[in-house]
Design a protein that fits this description.
CATH superfamily of one domain: Zn peptidases
CATH topology of one domain: Aminopeptidase
CATH class of one domain: Alpha Beta
Order of helices and strands: HHEEEHHEHHEEHEH
Strand content: 5-15%
Low-confidence stretches: 1-21
Strand order of the largest sheet: 1-2-4-3-7
Helix content: 25-40%
Largest sheet: 5 strands, mixed
Number of helices: 8
Number of strands: 7
Bound molecules: zinc ion
Structural class: alpha/beta
Radius of gyration: 20 Å
């Protein structure tokens, strides 16, 4: 009698996407799809429910849910400072989601080794900002062991892989806004692009895009609560650590602090 019941349980668990008891296994042999990332986060929330909480912070233009994962050490201490990380603003920078997922894995699954990092901080991570753009960049031809130069993409399949913006139409014949140029501070200054067909188009107005609005809400919440202490946004186009101000190159009031943190990050 117990065998059929066991099989039924497995079938139901599988069909609902509930992970096995050992917890979801983080894979590094391929890039996760948007759906794979969402499943992975859900699996962590299910398996490590005392330390992990998921929050849906908005929807993309194509109606994909954007989800942050909040990671604590489970001590129930409230009001800790928060480190916020996002990744995947630019569709083609696939490495950034992987980096964010790896950090999530280290903080949640490898908690014992890294618990010092959670003693006085909670972490909020949004591993994929531009879910539509990323999904689009995964479509089309699959390239294996081939170098694609995005400065001059040769074919339409190369152009798909090199997609950078989101997927909301920005003009009659052009799609997409460069999401990290869509923020309000100094919007449209210092070389921001007005051409809706260009890959770095700033958008029709500040925060015109649902994805940048979602990130804005998270940041404002952290400012209002006074808990936000560090914001890192991952890109993989160049090997640099950049800190404010990006819009005009001026030094921020606390640039010494930025410099110290950046230098620690290099090590
Ligand atoms: Zn980027």
């Amino acid at each position: 009698m117990s065998l059929p019941l066991f099989l039924v349980t497995l079938f139901i668990s599988g069909s609902l996407g509930i992970p096995f008891r050992s917890g979801p296994k983080y894979q590094t042999d391929d890039y996760y799809t948007y759906e794979g990332i969402q499943e992975y986060l859900k699996g962590l929330a299910y398996t490590y429910s005392n330390r992990v909480k998921l929050t849906d912070i908005g929807k993309t233009y194509e109606n994909r849910t954007l989800t942050t994962i909040t990671i604590s050490n489970g001590d129930r201490r409230t009001g800790k400072n928060v480190i916020f990380i996002d990744a995947g603003f630019h569709a083609r920078e696939w490495l950034t989601h992987t980096a964010a997922l790896n950090i999530i894995d280290q903080l949640v699954v490898n908690f014992k080794e890294n618990q010092e990092l959670l003693k006085d901080y909670d972490w909020v991570i949004l591993p994929l900002v531009n879910a539509d753009g990323y999904t689009y960049s995964r479509s089309g031809n699959v390239f294996i062991n081939e170098t694609i130069t995005c400065n001059e993409p040769l074919t339409s399949d190369h152009q798909i892989k090199c997609w950078r913006k989101n997927r909301k139409p920005s003009a009659e014949d052009c799609i997409g806004t460069d999401l990290n140029r869509n923020f309000e501070y100094d919007w449209g200054k210092e070389g921001d692009i007005n051409d809706p067909c260009y890959l770095a188009f700033k958008g029709i107005s500040p925060f015109s895009e649902p994805e940048s609005q979602a990130v804005k809400r998270v940041l404002l919440d952290l400012v209002k609560s006074g808990r936000g202490i560090l914001y890192l946004t991952f890109h993989s186009a160049i090997s640099l650590i950049l800190y404010p101000w990006g819009s005009n190159g001026d030094k921020a009031e606390n640039f010494k602090e930025h410099e110290e943190v950046a230098e620690a990050g290099i090590l």
